[in-house]
């Protein structure tokens, strides 16, 4: 799920730093600096980068940090018993039943949003707005000219929606059926196949509509639009396509053991454009996670220093 020198809006970084400093916690003690803070390292590149950044910021405050490989579901056992101290990037659409049970039992604590602006839904290369002028309104997908542009030999007479790979699961087919859209969802073979199609469509200006999510490293390369999704008729929100929350979670004893670290992680944020650029550096250019994260730390002291100041001063 995703050269660090980049154009970035200086005003947004300064505004973020000011906001965090203004709303920061009162000064706290470091606590048990002799015991490492153990951060869960999950399976996808974006979470690994978020975790590296958090660990480096904690190290700047004077803590030692260990990075512990952990699966998305097994991590909750470690967080509940304290063998893991924190996890930095939990997606609310991928938590199963164990996460809410651990929260309810008080074994873990949700300490707030990571700050990523997430998206999930039907996306298209921006040039599609010339082919289907009503986009991003979903009703544009009913226009015969738009449908014809998206039609393939596999989907005649319907337009084609490139869906998630079959083993990922998807709600697109149900939403198409519920709204009687002239589209057929065709599963992609893999994430790599989806990226290849998106890049080819951008290069050749070929019509494409696909199920996708953000942040994703390819979005630092290709600008897409997002369909304002059709109505979802299900009574179960999990059956609908909606942006997931991305949250930070700590072991219930974290605040008492590392008070300043707790305040730092509460304030810790990662912005989606930054994560997308960092993921691209790792996945497309082959840079190491550690080097990419260290580059962000070196270039963004104006962002992370207020987190330390608010916790420690």
From TrEMBL:
Location of the ABC-type glycine betaine transport system substrate-binding domain: 36-299
GO function terms (MF aspect): transmembrane transporter activity
This protein's record includes keyword Signal: yes
Entry keyword set: Signal
Keyword Cytoplasm annotated: no
InterPro entries: ABC_Gly_betaine_transp_sub-bd
This protein's name: Glycine/betaine ABC transporter substrate-binding protein
Transmembrane domains' residue ranges: none
Any one cellular-component term (Gene Ontology): ATP-binding cassette (ABC) transporter complex
CDD domains: PBP2_BCP_2
Signal sequence coordinates: 1-27
């Amino acid at each position: 799920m995703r050269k660090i020198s980049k154009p970035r809006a200086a005003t947004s970084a300064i505004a973020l730093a000011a906001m965090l400093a203004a709303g920061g916690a009162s000064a706290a003690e470091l606590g048990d600096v002799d015991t490492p803070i153990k951060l869960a390292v999950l399976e996808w590149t974006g979470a690994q980068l978020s975790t590296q950044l958090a660990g480096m910021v904690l190290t700047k405050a004077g803590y030692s940090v260990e990075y512990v490989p952990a699966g998305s579901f097994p991590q909750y056992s470690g967080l509940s018993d304290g063998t893991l101290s924190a996890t930095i990037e939990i997606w609310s659409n991928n938590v199963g039943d164990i996460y809410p049970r651990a929260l309810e039992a008080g074994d873990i604590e949700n300490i707030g949003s990571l700050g990523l602006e997430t998206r999930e839904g039907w996306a298209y290369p921006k040039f599609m707005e010339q082919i289907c002028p009503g986009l991003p309104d979903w009703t544009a997908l009913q226009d015969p000219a738009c449908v014809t542009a998206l039609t393939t030999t596999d989907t005649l007479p319907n337009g084609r929606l490139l869906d998630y790979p079959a083993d990922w699961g998807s709600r697109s087919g149900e939403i198409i059926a519920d709204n009687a859209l002239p589209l057929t969802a065709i599963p992609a073979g893999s994430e790599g196949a989806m990226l290849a199609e998106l890049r080819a469509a951008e290069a050749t200006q070929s019509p494409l509509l696909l199920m996708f999510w953000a942040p994703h490293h390819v979005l630092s390369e290709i600008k897409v639009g997002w369909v304002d999704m059709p109505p979802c008729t299900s009574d179960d929100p999990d059956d609908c396509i909606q942006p997931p929350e991305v949250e930070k979670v700590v072991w219930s004893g974290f605040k008492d053991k590392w008070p300043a670290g707790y305040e730092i992680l509460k304030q810790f944020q990662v912005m989606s454009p930054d994560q997308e650029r960092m993921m691209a550096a790792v996945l497309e250019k082959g840079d190491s996670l550690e080097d990419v994260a260290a580059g962000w730390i070196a270039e963004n002291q104006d962002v992370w220093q207020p987190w330390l100041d608010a916790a420690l001063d």
